[in-house]
């Protein structure tokens, strides 16, 4: 049985990872089981109607790979447009969100989980799903992150659908502070445990979801679900010091931003963070995020344009600085494997598909991920994503897994933690705890540089795990959210950070 370190968004998810590790599971098994629980109890942030990415460092030392289970544009055979409306909210510093049945994209996270399990898992699929079934059946309290989000949107987004309203509100119309029990969701998870991802793509759950979305004016048809496939790609490689990192490649834009920022940091900070280091981070973010907003978000060929941008960074280095709703689980094991999983349902469409207990995503309505507008892509096209689950290997054999939720703060949170850990000599937990800076709307007239004073979930929720070269394990969770860590070990000592 390998030792396993787990960092998860909440205690129940961490418990699930621990349970699977104690049953003999490896880092991939533990990360997937923990992530499945978040799809139950991180209400409003992630659900079974989600997309995600899994980046894996195989224990044999072969190059890291990323399983793309992100959202597809639906609409095969459907009239595009309609079935949506906009909601303005102060969440995340102020954002306009498009919701309704027409905002529901083609989900893919469970299909990606199944593919990752097939390639690198070590215990039966049903065992991975069982903890999530039990949480849905016995009940849970909302996490602090869920409550914080729902305080902004519980009426506007999660109040228009009758079943959704009943699930998150008490009799007085306030956010329910008691135990949420979701029997329909438990039954859906039972089908997934028995039939795998097919239940959500060609089986009964697919039929129920598609029928309800179409009935309410959306465009997610049965062909969209049946034709969906996860894609396995070589991870995008970035180097910092003696570490080699693998992160999310195109068509996600998040990993490109992480790789570019790591290259431009130029080894900073060289010791404790100094004011000039913080200014350098701001300059790096301005360059990379500004290029993303002006070029990458509108690219016809993202892989080509991302490669050209990374080539520019490598050639011009500092000269390049002068140019223009989510859950994450990390796990590493004593065999040298590492797994980083990030999943999202967007801000939520507000509706539960009848007969399933599943809150449906609104990823077509995340306006920052759809620069061509609502229904602006051809059916079957992957949407943009900020997500950047990342793994790394050190020349001494150490392995790390890291990632974060947080929309456009995902990449800046990950890079600042890695910079403090790799370059600054901070311990993993100290690097996670350190205050952050984020350039919002980089390069635009309304650009704002936001510097963290009090810890807040606006700046992400990093989860990171580490296997040191001597075999000891470390896990670090972000105090900005209800993060939880677990260390499951045999005779080799393990440590918390």
TrEMBL record:
<keyword id="KW-0378">Hydrolase</keyword>
<dbReference type="InterPro" id="IPR029055">
    <property type="entry name" value="Ntn_hydrolases_N"/>
</dbReference>
<dbReference type="GO" id="GO:0016787">
    <property type="term" value="F:hydrolase activity"/>
</dbReference>
<dbReference type="InterPro" id="IPR043137">
    <property type="entry name" value="GGT_ssub_C"/>
</dbReference>
<dbReference type="InterPro" id="IPR051792">
    <property type="entry name" value="GGT_bact"/>
</dbReference>
<dbReference type="Pfam" id="PF01019">
    <property type="entry name" value="G_glu_transpept"/>
</dbReference>
<comment type="similarity">
    <text>Belongs to the gamma-glutamyltransferase family.</text>
</comment>
<keyword id="KW-0865">Zymogen</keyword>
<keyword id="KW-0808">Transferase</keyword>
<protein>
    <submittedName>
        <fullName>Gamma-glutamyltransferase</fullName>
    </submittedName>
</protein>
<dbReference type="GO" id="GO:0016740">
    <property type="term" value="F:transferase activity"/>
</dbReference>
């Amino acid at each position: 049985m390998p030792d396993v370190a787990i960092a998860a968004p909440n205690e129940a998810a961490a418990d699930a990872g621990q349970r699977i590790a104690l049953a003999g599971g490896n880092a991939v098994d533990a990360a997937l089981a923990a992530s499945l629980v978040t799809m139950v109890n991180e209400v409003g942030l992630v659900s079974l109607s989600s997309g995600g990415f899994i980046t894996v460092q195989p224990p044999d030392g072969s190059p890291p790979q990323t399983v793309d289970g992100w959202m597809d544009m639906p609409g095969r055979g459907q009239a595009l447009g309609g079935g949506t409306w906009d909601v303005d909210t102060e969440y995340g510093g102020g954002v306009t969100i498009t919701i309704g049945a027409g905002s529901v994209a083609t989900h893919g996270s469970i299909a990606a989980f199944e593919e990752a399990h097939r390639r690198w898992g070590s215990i039966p699929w049903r065992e991975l799903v069982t903890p999530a079934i039990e949480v849905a059946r016995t009940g849970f309290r909302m996490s602090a992150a869920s409550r914080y989000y729902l305080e902004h949107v519980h009426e506007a987004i999660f109040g228009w659908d009758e079943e959704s309203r009943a699930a998150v509100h008490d009799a007085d119309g306030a956010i329910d502070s008691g135990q949420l029990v979701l029997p329909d969701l438990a039954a859906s998870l039972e089908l997934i445990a028995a039939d795998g991802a097919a239940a959500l793509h060609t089986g009964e759950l697919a039929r129920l979801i598609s029928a309800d979305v179409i009935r309410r004016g959306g465009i997610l048809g049965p062909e969209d679900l049946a034709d969906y496939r996860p894609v396995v790609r070589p991870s995008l490689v970035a180097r910092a010091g003696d570490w080699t990192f693998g992160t999310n490649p195109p068509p996600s834009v998040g990993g490109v931003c992480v790789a570019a920022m790591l290259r431009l940091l130029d080894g900073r900070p060289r010791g404790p963070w100094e004011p000039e280091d913080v200014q350098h981070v701001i300059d790096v973010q301005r360059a990379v995020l500004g290029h993303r907003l002006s070029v990458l978000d509108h690219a016809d060929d993202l892989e080509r344009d991302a490669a050209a941008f990374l080539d520019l960074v490598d050639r011009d280095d500092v000269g390049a600085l002068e140019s223009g709703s989510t859950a994450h689980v990390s796990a590493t094991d004593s065999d040298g494997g590492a797994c980083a999983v990030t999943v999202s349902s967007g801000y939520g469409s507000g509706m539960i598909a009848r007969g399933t207990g599943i809150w449906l995503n609104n990823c077509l309505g995340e306006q920052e991920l759809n620069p061509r507008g609502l229904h602006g892509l051809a059916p079957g096209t992957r949407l943009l994503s900020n997500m950047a689950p990342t793994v790394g290997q050190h020349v001494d054999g150490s392995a790390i897994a890291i990632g974060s939720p947080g929309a456009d703060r995902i990449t800046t949170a990950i890079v600042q933690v890695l910079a403090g850990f790799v370059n600054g000599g901070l311990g993993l937990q100290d690097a996670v705890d350190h205050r952050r800076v984020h350039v919002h709307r980089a390069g635009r007239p309304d650009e704002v540089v936001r510097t963290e004073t009090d810890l807040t979930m606006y700046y992400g929720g990093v989860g990171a795990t580490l296997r040191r070269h001597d075999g000891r394990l470390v896990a670090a969770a972000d105090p900005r959210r209800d993060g939880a860590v677990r260390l499951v070990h045999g005779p080799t000592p393990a440590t918390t950070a």
